[in-house]
Amino acid sequence: MLRRCANRTSIAASLATSVVVVVVVAFFFAVADSSNNSQIKCSKACVAENCNSVGIRYGKFCGVGWTGCPGEKPCDDLDACCKIHDECVEKKEKFDLIVLLMA
């Protein structure tokens, strides 16, 4: 009788472990799928592996080397500020190049 109980307990534990593993794997696939879709719309999360200051991106325009695509609109006010900054930097770089070429 005791042996039967032990077998049922181990079977139940194995079944519970299997269910937990399946749920966790399904969760990770769902998160990966939703994060890919949300980045296309407007990423508002850190996408760098360690979230270091160089790799942090926000929205469509905020972050090093992250300037959005032509015709895109900012996600919110912060993203709009980054867009204005990017446009200003681009104009300054073009101006500096013209001055350099004229010298």
TrEMBL record:
It is found in: Secreted. GO terms for molecular function: calcium ion binding; phospholipase A2 activity. PANTHER family: PHOSPHOLIPASE A2 FAMILY MEMBER, PHOSPHOLIPASE A2-DELTA-RELATED. The keyword Secreted applies. Gene3D superfamilies: Phospholipase A2 domain. The gene is PLA2-GAMMA. It comes from the Eukaryota. Keywords: Calcium, Disulfide bond, Membrane, Metal-binding, Secreted, Transmembrane, Transmembrane helix. GO terms for cellular component: extracellular region. GO terms for biological process: arachidonate secretion; lipid catabolic process; phospholipid metabolic process. Its cofactor is Ca(2+). The keyword Iron does not apply. The lineage of its organism: Eukaryota, Viridiplantae, Streptophyta, Embryophyta, Tracheophyta. Binds 1 Ca(2+) ion per subunit. It comes from Vitis vinifera. This is Phospholipase A2-gamma. Its main location: secreted.
